[in-house]
Amino acid sequence: MIAYRNTEFGVERIEDGASTFIHEDPAHPAWREFQAWRGQGYEPGSRVERPNFLDTPAVMKLWVIGAGGYGREVFSMTRSARGCDREWTFAGFLNDVPDALDLFPDLPRIHGDTSYEPQPGDVFVCAIGDAAGRRAVAERFKGRGAKFLTLIQNTACVSPSAVIGEGVIIEPFTGIGANCRIGDFSIVLGHVIISHDVIIGDFAQVSPFACLLGRVSVGEDAFIASHAVVLPGIKIGAGATVGAGSVVVKDVPDGATVFGVPARQIQ
Q1: Which residues partner with 163 through β-bridges?
Q2: Is 120 exposed, middle or buried (0-12, 13-18, 19+ CB in 10 A)?
Q3: Catalytic residue status for 28
Q4: How many domains would you assign to the chain?
Q5: If DSSP codes are grouped into helix, strand and coil, which group holds residue 138?
Q6: What is the DSSP-derived secondary structure letter of residue 164?
Q7: Does residue 136 sit within a domain?
Q8: Are residues 236 and 166 in the same domain?
Q9: What is the distance between the alpha carbons of residues 233 and 120, in angstroms, rounded to a whole number?
């Protein structure tokens, strides 16, 4: 049986448990089929609210935690990410090294360190590249009641059926397919392709131009380097590393490092 429901940017077609996103395009057969369905007196279901996509007219203050190389990269994203200047405005950097931006006079200054106490109207993004450091700082702020934003670049394409965790950062020109699940505080860098039904654990990182094909599972704190390809159904263990340019054809154990074509364990 076919059903439809509204999404943020169009309509989702649901059939046999699978979902497809449909844009409004009178020339496309799927859109014409949707209109014919409505012509029979049906109406699409209401939009499903996804967690951590802030939807409020109130303008909040966004703090970027971390002012290293990745912090500067994330700051650039705040100029064009979803919700910019409508749901939130950039407030400043928080960093434990107070002079980290001294060589970058065009950037905003560092306002405080990671002992900062969240104030009403504050939201945060943790721009620390190292998974262990990101976890430690995020948990510290969460213990103080901090709310973390999911930061998504406008040019990223995220399926309406994907579930994106708290504090996730999704960079430009990335695609995330149907029914994916991205864990809390994971980082998906630019030009990444994540196919359908992929599960990524908390605090993982997927680097530029990597490709995770259907039903891949990536454990917590795992690191997928640039241009790596993980074939369908493969499991990457917690804390594992996949080297740059590798093609992963079999499961990777927890904590292992694999590299090559095909990828072999080197550590």
Answers
A1: 181
A2: exposed
A3: no
A4: 3
A5: helix
A6: E
A7: yes
A8: yes
A9: 43
Tokens of 253: 């154990």
Q: Are residues 29 and 78 in the same domain?
A: no
| pLDDT-based confidence at residue 171 (cuts at 50, 70, 90) | very high
User: How many angstroms separate the CA atoms of 37 and 39, rounded?
Assistant: 5
The CA-atom distances, in angstroms, between 52 and each of 10, 106, 114 are: 20, 30, 22
Structure token pair of residue 36: 């014919």
Annotated catalytic residue, options 23, 111, 191, 196: 196
pLDDT in tens, 184-199: 999 999 999 999 999 9
Statement to judge: residues 161 and 262 lie in one domain: yes
The tokens for 69 are 């190389």
Residue 54 lies in a domain: no
User: How many helices (DSSP H) and strands (DSSP E) are in the chain?
Assistant: 3, 26
What are 62's strand-pairing partners? 90, 123
Domain that holds residue 214: 152-267
Q: Give which of 210, 117, 197, 206 is closest to 161, Cα–Cα.
A: 197
Share of the chain above pLDDT 90, in %: 68
How is residue 226 annotated by DSSP? Answer: T
pTM beyond cutoff 0.70: yes
